[in-house]
Amino acid sequence: MDSKRAVSELNENEKDALDSVEEVLEDSNEEVVIEEKIVQPKNKNDQSKKLMKESEKLISKADEDIKSTKESVSQSVNKFEELKGTLLNTTFTQSQILLEKTSYEYSKAESDDPFEISLAARGEDVSVSNISSGAFTGLILGLIVALATVAGWIYFATTKLGVALTPALIENQTDQTTLFTWIGGGMTGGVGNPMFGMATVGISALVLGFMVYKLRVSMKENKNFKVANETFEKSNLYVQNQKETKTEMQKIDDHVQEIIPVIENYKILLEEQNAKLQRVVHVEGILDENSEYHPSSIATMQDSERMMERIEELLTIPVTKEGQLNDASRQSLFEAKSVYDYYISKIYA
């Protein structure tokens, strides 16, 4: 009954599962057409193998897309880290030294969270298992049942006839004939036939063994189809999760690439400011109080501080938070751009 119920349930879901394979799956850059028309497989194992094959294709394509996106992000992050290190260790450090000489206090930017650029993974990995027909184990079970059937007949007959069930029975033709004669009709009160008895034992053993074999294969096919269907559904969910992950990675990549020219721009601005500060120190000297400097010199120091605060904050705030683009970093980038545009506009005013 369990086997029939399993087959019935699978028959109801079979068409939906096959229709699912025919769907057109889209990723962010291109369409992936699994198959517009599918030739109906001959049996459930063929169906299961086809579902597993399509699942493997989907997972492989999704993983390739993620790998490609990760490589792009990695290149952007390496460039970002290189420019960040260069700016902070040279131009920015020189700005701090010059402000200290003019007794101008600059407060280092602090972030509540440690700096990070990490990529989050969504969902669980999906493993695609191999499909086996169950024929080998079915054959083994069938043979065991067939042998057990023969042994059962022999034991039953020896018990009824009072023949000793010993190894000597194998060589005792008389006792064998007696047993098979009884099986071949004698047990029903008729005239037995030993050939008919042997046929009865052999055919019953083959029938039962074959039934067990077919049952095992059928159960394995049903299980394979169920597993393949579940795997296909999981692979589609995996693809969707990977697409969302890829989208988030692309946001991070775009954001980092947008920061890179801002770092370069601020490096130029701060170098110009450092030249102005060096001129202030050279002309006015190193004074005890910052307030003793000329107002225009103090304004230069304030401009330097404002630029330093903006770029240091941008480079200090985590680009990502829990694997996603940090809104604080996005806001900091907007403010850094605004400050840069303001000072550029002053140049051409």
SSE topology sketch:
Blueprint: H1 2-21, E1 24-26, E2 31-33, H2 44-101, H3 135-161, H4 173-183, H5 194-284, H6 295-316, E3 320-321, E4 324-325, H7 327-347
Antiparallel strand pairs: 1-2, 3-4
Largest sheet, in brief, is:
2 strands, antiparallel
Distance N to C terminus: 89 Å
Order of strands across the main sheet: 1-2
Class from secondary-structure proportions? mainly alpha
Element string (H = helix, E = strand): HEEHHHHHEEH
Walk me through what this model shows.
The protein has 349 residues and is mainly α. The protein folds into 2 domains: 2-126 and 228-347, no CATH class; 136-221, no CATH class. It contains 7 helices and 4 strands, in the order H-E-E-H-H-H-H-H-E-E-H. It has helices spanning 2-21, 44-101, 135-161, 173-183, 194-284, 295-316, 327-347; strands at residues 24-26, 31-33, 320-321, 324-325. The strands form 2 sheets. It has a two-stranded antiparallel ribbon with strand order 1-2. Strand 1 (24-26) and strand 2 (31-33) form a beta hairpin. The N and C termini lie far apart (89 Å). Residues 1-11 and 20-39 have low confidence and may be disordered.
